[in-house]
Amino acid sequence: MPDGDLVHSQLSRIYQKPYQMLCEGKLDRKECAWFVMKAFLQDIKNNYGVLFVKLAKHMGEILDKASENTAANSSVDWMAWNLKLERVARQATVSHYVKELILRASKGILHEIRYNRTVDASNLSEAVVERSFQEVYKAKFEQRIPLSSNHHADVDNATVTERVEAIRPDILPEMRKWAKKAVADEDVKSLRRSSRKKVKKIDLDEDLL
């Protein structure tokens, strides 16, 4: 899609077509989710990788220790654990943007551990990678869409928001699978979408007009 054909100025090029699909409403929810996932994986593979996964895994290892400490000790210095996460993120050799995404994911899980919220403590490294994927998705796609009051194809904001929310149940379980694979590989290059047989064969670079 040439720059002159961008349909939403706040979205990067890779997310332009999925956004256009959501606005036009020509595909059903699962089909839209399928192409949003394609764009997301392309983004992850192009812009994140080994260091992203390694930092998230290391944060998960710290959270493992925090969780063990919580189980064994009724008095936990939560500020100290927060500061440790910040220190590790600060020392990592990744961009400030990536540090902030992973730190936000890690602190969110630490908060859930502290207040006994629902969090799977069986593999906190996978949990941090999964939550970091979610943070990337929100930051690069979901949170940029509401910035425009004039949506493509004259669709109102409420409709677009509803469609974005509708595809989450299809996308989030995939992120859980990707996190498991990414932790095992310590990379994102082998991540794939689960197979779907009934999705129309529309490429992200096709012109839907």
Could you characterize the architecture of this molecule?
The structure is a single chain. The protein has helices at 16-24, 29-47, 50-72, 78-91, 96-114, 124-140, 157-185. With 209 residues, it is mostly helical. The longest helix has 29 residues, at 157-185. It starts with 15 loop residues before the first helix and ends in a 24-residue tail after the last helix. The mean pLDDT is 88.
Please mark out the parts with pLDDT under 50 across 5 or more consecutive residues, or reply none: none
* SSE string: HHHHHHH
End-to-end Cα distance, whole Å, is: 12 Å
The backbone outline, from C-alpha atoms, is elongated
Q: Could you give the count of β-strands?
A: 0
- Percent helix range: 55-70%
Largest sheet: none
- Separate helix tally: 7
The amount of beta strand, in percent, is under 5%
Structural class: mainly alpha
Give the mean pLDDT: 88
CA-atom Rg in angstroms: 19 Å
SSE topology sketch:
Layout: H1 16-24, H2 29-47, H3 50-72, H4 78-91, H5 96-114, H6 124-140, H7 157-185
Summarize the structure.
The chain has 209 residues and is mainly α. It has 7 helices and no strands.
Keywords:
single chain; 209 residues; mainly alpha
